[in-house]
Amino acid sequence: MKNREIVRVVTSHQQREGGGFVVRRPLPSGAYDDADPFLLLDEMGPIEYAPGEALGAPDHPHRGFETVTYVLEGEAEHADSAGHRGKIGPGAVQWMTAGRGIVHAEMPSRTMREQGGRMHGFQLWVNLPARDKMIAPRYQEIPREKIPSRTTPDGLATVHVIAGEALGASAVIETRTPITYHHWSLQPGAAVDVAIPPEHSAFVYVFEGELSVSGRPLRSGQLGVLGEGEGVALAATGRAQALVLSGAPLREPVARSGPFVMNTEREIQQAILDYRAGKLGGIERSVTSHDNPQGERR
Questions:
Q1: Each residue of 136-172: pLDDT tens digit?
Q2: pLDDT in tens, 235-280
Q3: How far apart are CA 229 and CA 1, in angstroms?
Q4: Domains observed in the chain
Q5: CA angle, residues 72, 75, 76, in degrees to nearest 5
């Protein structure tokens, strides 16, 4: 197996999102924004909230792509204009296909808002091909116990398989755009070769410690853009955690404006008009709801 080498290193930057929470963002950045089929990767936290401090992303629209929310610590609640409501906790994934359009809110749970606590997670945006941009919205909510995980025979490396395959485990989530999404946890002395489809674009994002990625060091907050090959070699001298992401490039025109990602500027303008006209709907709430309807994410 030919291992992919790092051809570029992108250091994440910090910015505020949603209702004012801070994210660490490697994609997109001023240094690199061509991660087809991925549009955005945000690391939310880790942060310790005191009671009344927890922030989220109130009502905002999406059209033309998918959002993948992966919670490591804490709890998040969501609601949308199709009447869907739910909660995801540590280790759980919410995969939302926005398709032709939806308005949703992603907020810390009521317990987190009232009592505080530690929050850490990721949101990944995956582009949809032109043929799928106006499909019906869909949710896939997978609790921690249903996310496949495997550990290497020496017990030093563990993977949670959100999309794709690793160590003989296959993801349970259905993806419209073929991708790999792994969460790797490595102990000191761990070394593992991770297979990646050769036709995919591929990336490694380290969010704890430092990793050797096919022989090149990558530290927390850095994204390694990988070159051609069939896999990548990960090794750790200390405790480290990383995401391994890969996807089949769409190679289609991309027009984006905040929460909308289409193929042409005309389609973007139509998305804005449809949202303003209420065609993406709104979230219904009771007068006792604790959701905050103000603000938008990006």
A1: 999 899 999 999 999 999 999 999 999 999 999 999 9
A2: 999 999 999 999 999 999 999 999 999 999 999 999 999 999 999 9
A3: 8
A4: 6-247 (2.60.120.10)
A5: 105
Looking at the DSSP bridge assignments, the partners of residue 260 are: 63, 257
Tokens, residue 293 = 């309807």
- Which DSSP string corresponds to 55-87? --EEEEEEBSEEEEEEEEES-EEEEETTS-EEE
Own/partner contacts of 48-52, CB < 8 Å, gap of 24 or more, are 48/116, 48/117, 48/118, 49/108, 49/112, 49/116, 49/117, 49/118, 49/119, 50/116, 51/114, 51/115, 51/116, 52/113, 52/114, 52/116
Report CA-CA distances (Å) from 31 to 6, 12, 284.
15, 10, 40
How much is the pTM? 0.92
Torsion region of 286: left, alpha or beta (phi above 0 gives left; psi -120 to 50 gives alpha): beta
The answer to whether 222 touches 11, Cβ cutoff 8 Å, is yes
Q: Count of CB atoms within 10 A of residue 174's CB?
A: 10
Contact 70, 119 (CB under 8 A): no
